[in-house]
Amino acid sequence: MEEQRKQVIFSAIQPSGTITLGNYLGALKNWVALQDEYDCIFSLADLHTITVRQDPAKFRKNALEAYALLLACGIDPQKSIFFIQSHVSAHAELAWVLNCYTQFGELSRMTQFKDKSAKHADNINAGLFAYPSLMAADILLYQADLVPVGADQKQHLELTRDIAERFNAAYSPTFTVPDGYIPKQGARVMSLQDPTSKMSKSDENANGFIAMLDSPDVIMKKFKRAVTDSDACVRYAEGKDGVNNLMGIYACVTGKTMDEIEREFEGRGYGDFKTAVGEAVVDHLRPIQERFSQYIADKAYLESCYRDGAARASRIANRTLSKVMKKIGFLPD
Ligand code: TRP
Predict the structure, then answer these.
(1) Which parts of the chain have pLDDT scores under 50?
(2) Counting atoms of ligand 1 from 1, which one is nearest the CA of 150?
(3) Ligand 1 centroid vs 143 CA: distance in angstroms?
(4) How would you write 173-240 as a 3-class SS string?
(5) How many CB atoms lie within 10 A of CB 241?
(6) pTM of the model
(7) d(CA 155, CA 283)
(8) Phi then psi dihedrals of residue 40, to 5 deg
(9) How far is the CA of 162 from the centre of ligand 1 (A)?
(10) Residues 85/91, Cβ–Cβ less than 8 Å
């Protein structure tokens, strides 16, 4: 090989409901930036989504829209492999295998499982419990070197590493043990209504999050209602969670530093500041929303993209899966 092998990055997002500005600034925008430097494999983790009951028609619609939106954000299906998890059967197959190499005790300790089972007390299904071994399968199938994940997924990545090391030790080196990838400029976007908790699409108060497809009017309105404080000064400081969050968002979409932002708004009130943040977000999202409308109107193109993505992903995934099956001692078919 002439070219040196690039490191492999794997990441995934669930197509559940609307994708928010928090998902975009915290994850997707970084994915887009990684595509030149790494061999990127991105997936819509729809198998994970059915751990919570879904309405079939909405689920189908959400998945297609999420696929189109990620393309619109700049995931480039030429540079990267971008596929839908349920289209590559190796994920479900390896997940079963890995379930047999994952301990009940380990899964019981996952904080996300504890949180989600408290939230969906009427549907604590085995899939919700085994969610981390499916996530491990996602990552390990592609021999990923690096996995960009937020703080809430760190524990799952740790478990993935443990599973990979355990399997490698029991047989012989089979899986690359992945590291977490911390983006150079990470953004943790908080709720506009409760800036001590993460911006979430499942927030009951829709004013807490900006959906990527919110109209300019709605975006402006939500920013105007954003919670701030009584200090009436745009500066980044401890205890000013609301203002810090707005400054973080503004910095992300304009590329300005916190110092520059403080200077820009010196002697000006929060009203001005919120309007500026809202307008900057509207400007940033406009081209993405336009591209989204084009993609979602072109079902044939979307289909060809995700089919091609699944075919390319399957080739890599099946290679890993057959190695695993052989090492365990399954009779070859
Ligand atoms: N569980 C992740 C989330 O909800 C999504 C996900 C599924 C994922 N498989 C993954 C993330 C593999 C990174 C790697 O955010």
Answers:
(1) none
(2) 15
(3) 15
(4) CCCCCCEEECCCCCCCCECCCCCCCECCCCCCCHHHCCECCCCHHHHHHHHHCCCCCCCCCCCCCCCC
(5) 17
(6) 0.95
(7) 36
(8) -100, 140
(9) 17
(10) yes
Residue 320, phi then psi, degrees to nearest 5 = -65, -45
Q: What is the pLDDT of residues 126-147, one digit of tens each?
A: 999 999 999 999 999 999 999 9
Neighbours of 9 (CB within 10 A): 23
* Residue where the block lists tokens 């983790």: 45
Question: Residue 4: what residue type?
Answer: Q
Segment (H or E) for 81:
strand 81-84
- Give, for 103, the enclosing helix (H) or strand (E): none
Is residue 116 flagged as an active site residue?
yes
The C-alpha atoms of residue 108 and residue 23 are separated, in whole angstroms, by 27
Going 71 to 73 to 77 to 83, the CA torsion angle's sign is: negative
Residues 203, 191 contacting (CB under 8 angstroms):
yes
What is each CA distance from 329 to 1, 93, 102, 155, 174, in whole angstroms? 32, 15, 18, 30, 14
Strand order in the sheet with 179-181: 81-84, 39-44, 8-13, 146-148, 179-181
18 within 8 A of 201, measured Cβ to Cβ: yes
185 is written with which tokens? Answer: 């400029």
- How many helices (H) does the chain have, and how many strands (E)? 14, 5
| Cα-based torsion angle of the residue sequence 34, 156, 311, 40 in order, rounded to the nearest 10 degrees | 10
Give yes or no for residue 66 CB within 6 A of ligand 1: no
pLDDT at site 203: 85
